[in-house]
Amino acid sequence: MFIYRFESVLIVLFIVLSVFFFSAVSLLAKIYLFSLILLLLLIRLVVTTTMQDTSAIYTKSLLGLVLLSYLYLNSNIAKIPFEAKVEYLNFNLYIATFLLFSLLQARGLNREIKISFLIITTVLFLLRILLGEKIVYFFVYNPNILAGTCLAITLYIVGDVVEKKEIGFTEITILFMSVLLLILSGSYSSIFIMIALFLYSIFKTKHLAILVIVSIAIIGIFLNFTSVVDRLIWNVIGIKVWLRNIFFGVGLGNFKFLYPTYLKDINVLPSTATIFVHNYFINLLSEIGFVGILIFLLLVYAVLKQRDRDYAYIYPVYGMLAHNLVDYNLLIPQNGILFFMFLGLKTWKTQFFSRNGGTKRFFNTICFLGILITIFGLFSCFKLQKIFNIISSDKIEEIKKIVSSDETCWYAWKKLAIKAMVSGNTVEAEDMFIKTIQTNPYEADSYFYLAVISFKNGYRQKAYQYLKTVVLLQPRLSGRYIRMFKNFVINTN
User: Fold this and answer.
1) 396-492 CATH fold
2) Which stretches within 58-109 are classed as H helix?
3) To bridge 24 with a disulfide, which of 236, 289, 333, 354 should be the other Cys (CB 3.0-4.6 Å)?
4) 3-state secondary structure 421-455
5) How far is the CA of 91 from the CAs of 31, 35, 78, 94, 253, in angstroms?
6) Domain boundaries, the chain
7) Each residue's pLDDT tens digit, 337-378
8) Which residues lie across from 353 on neighbouring strands?
């Protein structure tokens, strides 16, 4: 039937675009992906006549909804609420993806997934060979993210081959290109995870397999010692942030604003190449707290505890979990979507029922919940896209409307403050900067401008207090801020 072919095209399009849409970071990319999910859920609601045992997906769906509800409430009590609201949309997209593929698996998706991965690996491979690494990273954010994607694709194909005990031309082609891209990415952690899982699966004596894997890990640590130390430092910083906010964390997306304040007690400073902990779970723990990480892990455990031999889905899930113990790939939507897709597919069971009675009600309930989540995500993306467009446009009256409708939008408060500062209206600028630090207490620039305004108005003690806060918030940049302030004082005198 045409509708099934159309659905297959949409599934392939969704998986491919989730990788190629600039790692799905932009709001516009999320709008396209949410639209595809909505269309697929509506099709599934109409065309499904048989479905899997609802006990296989109902509990997991509820856990997914509990996680999403918790994160929504958590975003309102975050240190920087607006930032948490923006980051929350990623999990909105993840749970919608999870519900969609939980329901889609009733029809079988092996062909669509392989076609998607064939397109992704072929395009990335050709771009890498013909145009070099820069054009590839334009699509996939950075080498480590590319490595995480290639690792998931490789493990899916390996799991599929192990499960079916046969390999064809398509599988060989995907495997060749994904492994080569993985190696070319230069991500030692991804390569190690791939080798470790391979060795663990082929060794009959598991103790020997563990011994070999540990030996390789030790050699890798010595060869890449600086990077290992750097990752350990980031882990320490992440744990320190969490220990100050044990139960509920600092809020989604807030870690990158808070971590500089924890550097003053670190003797060996980490690199500035990243603003995330090189351990996804510690990063997530610091942002959503013990309560949030517990719900997240319960969802993962509820799916993985099933004894089904779905190696094609188990391998990439376990591989991505292991990889994110030493990296932060799941923080990037490109890999987060793939992870929740495999998690959704893993809920599948081979027992089918007619869509009648309780089964139909359960199916419709899950489907409608997925549709509501997707619609909420779409409207939120449109709203945020409009906000950022207005902030970029310099339309002062429109920006004022933003803060009147959402007082947590610190970007808008800061833009108004800077505009007032440039126009010479220091009274209004001071008020706007105060609003900025009320909605983002870790915005160092605003404290600096408040120090300048206070000094200019003769309140020197107040100015030095603001400058001291700047130094506490950005210890690594304190020298630059102090020099700027001294230049201002000199020019004023």
Assistant:
1) 1.25.40
2) 58-76, 81-104
3) 333
4) HHCCCHHHHHHHHHHHHHHCCCCHHHHHHHHHHHH
5) 14, 16, 16, 5, 12
6) 2-382, 396-492
7) 999 999 998 886 543 444 444 466 777 788 889 999 999 999
8) 51
